[in-house]
Design a protein that fits this description.
By secondary structure, the chain is an alpha/beta fold. The protein is built from 15 helices and 18 strands. The longest helix is centred in the N-terminal third of the chain and has 27 residues. It is globular. Bound molecules: nicotinamide-adenine-dinucleotide.
């Protein structure tokens, strides 16, 4: 089947109205949940082969997120889909005003490689819950993972409803020619632009979940031990290959040395070594080489070891880094953590605000004034005060970027709305129509119209 045929088949399926039925949606979400639980071992083995990710990390960062979204939608879908009743304005009385939540139609989800299950399946689950048909194009870089998802979905679901198209740039480029009703893309800002341009040809709405350099700011009012423990966990989870990982640290000069000592102790305690089952590999040789080229050996104060055969790069702390260094020019997306310092907190905030709006920002400080300045002065997708990354586990909050880190959001209710259209309908009574709006427009009518409007 060509992509155009697949797209047309999904359009026809969508128009058959089946996907709008709430019992249909629920049954398919539960079917997917059952399959995911049954295939958990195969999914773990695939991702382990792709980049050495442990079953523990796969569960906490991938599968549990998808299962949580499914459970949320199964429980809340009816409420989310229910028409909203609002007051009717005076001019439109007698009548009823309703906001209907309807699915968009046939949607395309394009996934990134770093959390391949979560980033592909969470948007697809939201699309299904909202009543759409969906084509999923996961990242091709983790090949086994892509294969396991392709098999799981394509052998168990009607391709006219949900279907996985495996492949890379060529396949995505061809898919982007279809006039989708929505494209949900997760990946780099560079490819995000390509997707946005392709979507514009069809006036197709997009959600872009992109990346960027997310700072962690540590002030003298922070609990340094807590900051070091949480930053270490968040930075070296998935070997730093996390879109919301702290990309670099800005620490207040007077506590810099104490913070560095805490960081060193924390990294050593966690025992991240080559072959450790709790430490993920770098996804491929290209990224391995890119990361080594960003590592200025003279600035390394901990780590720096690597093993190409295992695609292992040790958690590496760097100091003496300036904003002009290569490592500060691009999203690091690996286990290298530059620690820069500041002496003036407001200037540090301005420095962050001067760059592109990050996907996440983190502040470690127990000072309420500093916390408020952080919230007021920097725009970012989402973040934490006194923690990193975990804000996205609360699906009562939207997850998404702003500016160069993306547009739109998902998770929980926000994912449902991302794949829905709000259709406003006024249902007017056929009696009691005032003569007011009809010509001739007399002076007295104008007077009354002014009162009503
Ligand atoms: P990527 O942009 O290279 O690839 C993403 C997807 O786009 C893949 O499915 C790929 O096949 C496809 N693609 C790549 N080149 C393309 C092209 N020229 N035309 C059409 N499609 C193309 O990103 P990646 O390397 O998979 O992921 C890393 C990036 O994603 C980082 O910048 C990271 O911050 C970001 N990211 C963001 C989030 C988020 O939720 N905001 C989550 C994970 C990753």
């Amino acid at each position: 089947m060509t992509y155009k045929d697949l797209f047309s088949a999904q359009q026809a399926y969508f128009r058959s109205q089946q996907t709008k039925d709430l019992d249909f949606r629920k049954a398919n979400l539960l079917k997917l949940k059952k399959l995911l639980i049954e295939k958990e071992q195969a999914m773990n083995e695939a991702i382990e082969k792709d980049f050495g990710k442990s079953a523990f990390e796969t569960y906490i960062t991938e599968l549990s997120a998808v299962l949580q979204e499914i459970d949320y939608y199964v429980k809340n879908m009816r409420t989310l889909a229910r028409p909203g009743k609002v007051w009717t304005n005076l001019l439109n009385l007698p009548g009823k005003s309703r906001i209907y939540t309807e699915p968009l139609g046939v949607v395309l989800v394009i996934g990134a490689w770093n959390y391949p299950y979560q980033l592909s399946l969470c948007p697809m689950v939201a699309a299904m819950a909202a009543g759409n048909c969906c084509i999923l194009k996961p990242s091709e870089l983790p090949a086994h993972t892509m294969q396991v998802m392709t098999q799981l979905i394509n052998t168990n679901f009607d391709p006219a409803y949900i279907h996985v198209v495996p492949g890379g740039v060529e396949e995505t480029t061809a898919l982007l020619e279809c006039p989708f009703d929505k494209i949900f893309f997760t990946g780099s800002t560079k490819v995000g632009r390509i997707v946005y341009e392709a979507a514009a040809k069809h006036l197709c709405p997009v959600t872009l979940e992109l990346g960027g350099k997310s700072p962690a700011i540590v002030t003298a009012d922070a609990n340094l031990e807590v900051a070091a423990r949480r930053i270490t966990w968040g930075k070296f989870l998935n070997a730093g290959q996390t879109c919301v990982a702290p990309d670099y640290v800005l620490v207040e000069e007077k506590v810099k040395q104490a913070f560095i000592e805490q960081m060193k102790a924390q990294v050593q305690k966690n025992d991240y070594h080559a072959g450790a089952s709790h430490y993920t590999q770098i996804i491929n040789e290209r990224n391995f080489n890119r990361l080594l080229s960003l590592m200025d050996r003279d600035k390394v104060i901990l780590g720096g070891d690597s093993d190409k055969s295992k695609r292992f790069i040790a958690p590496t702390l760097l100091t003496g880094v300036s904003t002009g260094d290569a490592i500060m020019q691009e999203e690091i997306f690996g286990p290298l953590l530059p620690i820069l310092s500041f002496s003036d907190y407001r200037q540090a905030l301005e420095q962050v605000a001067d760059g592109e709006k990050p996907l996440s920002a983190y502040l470690f400080s127990n000072n309420q004034k500093e916390q408020q300045l952080f919230l007021d002065h920097i725009s970012f997708g989402g973040g934490c005060i006194n923690d990193v990354i975990v804000h996205l586990t609360n699906n009562r909050m939207p997850f998404g970027g702003v500016g160069h880190s993306g547009m739109g959001s998902y998770h929980g209710k926000f994912g449902f709305d991302t794949f829905s259209h709000k259709k406003s309908v006024l249902n007017k009574a056929t009696w009691g129509e005032p003569d007011l709006k009809f010509p001739p427009y007399t002076a007295s009518k104008i007077k009354w119209v002014r009162k009503f409007l």
